[in-house]
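Assess the record.
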Amino acid sequence: MKIVVPVKRVVDYNIKPRVKADNSGVDTQGVKMSMNPFDEIAVEEAVRLREKGAASEIVVVTIGVAEAQPVLRTAMAMGADRAILVQTDAELEPLAVAKLLKTIVDRENPGLVIMGKQAIDDDMNATGQILAARLNWPQGTFASSVAVEDGRITVVREADGGLETVRLALPAVVTTDLRLNEPRYATMPNIMKAKKKPLETIAADTLGVDITPRLETVKVVEPPVRQAGIKVSSVAELVGKLRDEAKVI
């Protein structure tokens, strides 16, 4: 079975994002970029499935600027076999990403697409579901456990009320949650090997997909600075402040 793993280049999670001076978006100039953490989990799970004999090939895909290639090399250093960059400088919404991914999935004909449940830059949590709908494939979202057997995949997913187990016919789309696994570190030998693995670049405008934005970003601002907390010396003082200042009792 072939597995396709979409990944995204985002501002590194250790970096505090800065808003552009004109409030048009987040400043990424000179900022460390890395693979979306949820997508790292997806790559790790794909590699584990191959190690268990449930997969034969892992193809990673990213959509974005040419500078996203290092993210693909990282995924290949973790164990992916080859990579595809759908290159575009356009700002993409989840619908456009899902449309572009569908063209790659149609071409690659995998048995499974596994991807992060959301990206930490916008937290949209929509691309996986839209992709599954456009492919007309079953989906298992927010996966905390995955097992493939007898041509089906069993996904334990995290829902609001607890855990739900779904059994899906393949091919299917699975989105990963934090508790699915702990991604491995890429070793230096594997990083060197990844440089020799095939990386194909496809221009997004050659795929015949309408990626016109449906949304307009009016303004991006930082959240207000939180006021410092205070200490109280007694329960009576706490109750008094809740009543007189916070007006909650």
